Amino acid sequence: MASAAPSVQVGNAAYHEPTGFTKSWAWIKRFARKRTFGFLAGVFCILILLIAIGAATGLLTPYDPTAVHGADRLLPMGSSSLDGTRFYLFGTDEFGRDVFSRLMKGAQLSMYFSLGVTAFSMTIGSTLGLMSAYFGGKFDLILQRIVDAVQTLPLLVLAVALVAILGAGIWKGFWVLAVLSIPRPLRVIRGSVLSVREELFILSAQSLGATNNRVMFRHVLPNVMAPMIVLISYAIAITIVTEASLSFLGVGAQPPTPSWGVMLTGSGQAYFQTNPRLALLPGFAISTVVFAVNMFGDALRDELDPRMRGT
Cβ(180)–Cβ(147) under 8 Å? Predict the structure, then answer.
């Protein structure tokens, strides 16, 4: 049985300690008031995630995004099929496929891909960066030289080369990007931990006999959450762009898989002069989602970082 919130008698009135839901709701309202633009960007990101989930279940896509209707090819926006049974909000491509359904299905691929790559790389990279900075020594030296070697080449160039060697495919691209994305959080978290490691509260915890695991994960890690939040938003944004780039170059998602990158390089490139919407719509989707993710991450960092509060 859940216990009631504690209360304290103050004068003639009783003060009730706010519950967890009340605190969360108050924080959301304060965040929306102080960081309105970032809050709206976060709402947009949640909307895109819901669209991705709805596209995965088939609840939101009006039609099958891979269904071919030759008689309805290259219909403009707001058109109906020739037999009058379908309405195409964003028109159709060269195979008569519904562009709106393909955009929504492409959101599913982009969001699932970026969230999966970010979760994997942040978990591994943050753990290694934390251990590297905390323990130092030969482990830190060897790990940092490996990171230097990987970061000598741009992420996209190295990803394209490795996927081309391993063979085209969305899952191969996923694991290549997941592994290649580890060095960035590793380097950033290592730098943040190095600045926190010598603080007095860390030395006090060590002098009281706290184990290394407790010091790292209970005292050091919570104090480097602000750069981690920005890093997560950056990683999601750059992964969306990289996945679209791999698909655009033909080594990521393969047709007829609905992907924003595939839509750009297929019908978008072939029919840009006569039907520019086939390229502008997926390009606008990529740009908007990346911008919103970055804005939300920056606003969340400013709100959660004690040094940035009040600015």
Answer: no
